[in-house]
Amino acid sequence: MFSKASAYSLGIALILSPLSALADDSISGAYKLSEDAKKAEKRIEKIIEEGTADMNFITRGIARGKLKDALKPHQKIELKLSGDQVEIVDARGPLVAPSSGKCVKPSKPRGKAKQVCHAFKGRVVVQTIKTPEAVRIAKYTVGADKTMRAEFTLKSERLPKPIKYTLKYKPTK
């Protein structure tokens, strides 16, 4: 007979277990940007301009240029869930990390990324990429209709406030 504490512990373990969560890989797949890439870029550029408006004019121009290059929307994103690993592939290549949220060094060089973390639960994958200058968080939520909502946040001590934007993706055929 289970005690209440044992039943509670078992329930928590099943909910949080990466292996049990990854058994349902229904969100694995390739997704393509739903909107026109040029429109998405223009929308992100406007968000960057608003987010850097409070910077002095010299650093503002430099920051905007770097951010526009770094935050270009990806035409295609792949989510691959297997075992206790999550792999996210975009135009810059793959990043693999445990689904537990534990941060690891990227297995292949990728820009300035020093650490990557993936956390997976239900139909949501959260990716955190840490560089010496910033932290980029991407929250990928896949709906029952297989469309994906990607919410991006870039935080840096050099920015007056985080840069946040959302893109929508649809499954590739």
Distance from N terminus to C terminus (CA atoms, Å) equals 49 Å
Alpha-carbon Rg, integer: 18 Å
Strand order of the largest sheet: 4-3-2-1-9-8-7-6-5
**CATH class group:** Mainly Beta
Arithmetic mean of pLDDT? 85
Q: Hey, roughly how much beta strand do the residues contain?
A: 35-45%
> Into which percent range does the helicity of residues fall?
25-40%
Gross morphology is globular
Largest sheet: 9 strands, antiparallel
What structural class do you assign from the helix and strand content? alpha+beta
What is the second-level CATH architecture?
Beta Barrel
Q: What is the domain total for the residues?
A: 1
Question: What name does CATH use for the topology?
Answer: Lipocalin
Helix-strand topology string: HHEHHEEEEEEEE
Oligomeric composition of the shown chains: single chain
Q: Please report the number of helical segments.
A: 4
Number of strands: 9
Unreliable spans: 1-24
